[in-house]
User: Which sequence fits this backbone?
C-alpha cells in the first residue's frame, strides 16, 4: 500500500463524515442481518469491528474501508472525541445484545438492538443521538463543578 493511501485515513482531531457514515452503515447492516437470520453470532462482527476501531483507530476499521466509498466524499467532519464516545456506546449496546441473546434474554437483546438501530438510523439521517448525550453529560459535569 502506498504512503498516500495510508495517509488518507490519518485523521488527527476530525474524521470526515463519509467515513463515519461507512461505519454506521456497517453496524446497521449487521444488526439487520442478525435479526433477520436470528443468528446471535452475527452481532460479534460489528462488535469486533468497533473494538478494533477503538483499539487501533479508524484506519483499521473494516466497515470504514469497505463502506465509506459508497458515500460521497465529505468535507464535513465529526470530532474524534465525540466519535470515541459514540463508539463506546455502540460497543456497550452490541455487547449487551449479544450477551442477552446468548442468555436467552431476547427482550433485553431486542431492546438494546432497537436503541442502537434507532441511534444509527438517526445518525445516518443527520442527528447524532450520542453527540446530544455527550453534550448533556458535559453540561451536567460543568454545572456540578461550579
Assistant:
Amino acid at each position: 500500500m502506498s504512503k498516500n493511501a495510508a495517509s488518507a485515513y490519518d485523521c488527527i482531531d476530525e474524521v470526515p463524515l463519509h467515513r463515519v457514515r461507512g461505519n454506521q452503515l456497517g453496524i446497521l447492516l449487521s444488526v439487520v442481518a442478525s435479526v433477520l437470520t436470528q443468528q446471535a453470532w452475527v452481532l460479534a462482527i460489528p462488535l469486533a469491528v468497533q473494538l478494533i476501531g477503538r483499539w487501533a483507530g479508524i484506519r483499521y476499521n473494516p466497515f470504514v474501508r469497505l463502506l465509506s466509498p459508497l458515500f460521497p466524499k465529505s468535507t464535513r467532519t465529526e470530532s474524534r472525541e465525540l466519535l470515541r464516545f459514540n463508539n463506546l456506546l455502540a460497543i456497550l449496546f452490541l455487547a449487551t445484545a449479544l450477551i442477552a441473546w446468548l442468555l436467552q434474554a431476547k427482550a433485553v437483546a431486542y431492546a438494546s438492538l432497537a436503541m442502537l438501530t434507532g441511534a444509527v438510523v438517526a445518525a445516518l439521517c443527520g442527528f447524532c443521538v450520542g453527540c446530544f448525550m455527550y453534550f448533556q453529560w458535559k453540561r451536567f459535569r460543568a454545572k456540578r463543578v461550579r
User: Anything to note?
Assistant: The mean pLDDT is 90. The helical segments are 3-7, 17-37, 44-56, 62-67, 80-102, 106-124, 129-145. The first strand starts at residue 14 and ends at 16. The chain has one domain: 14-145.
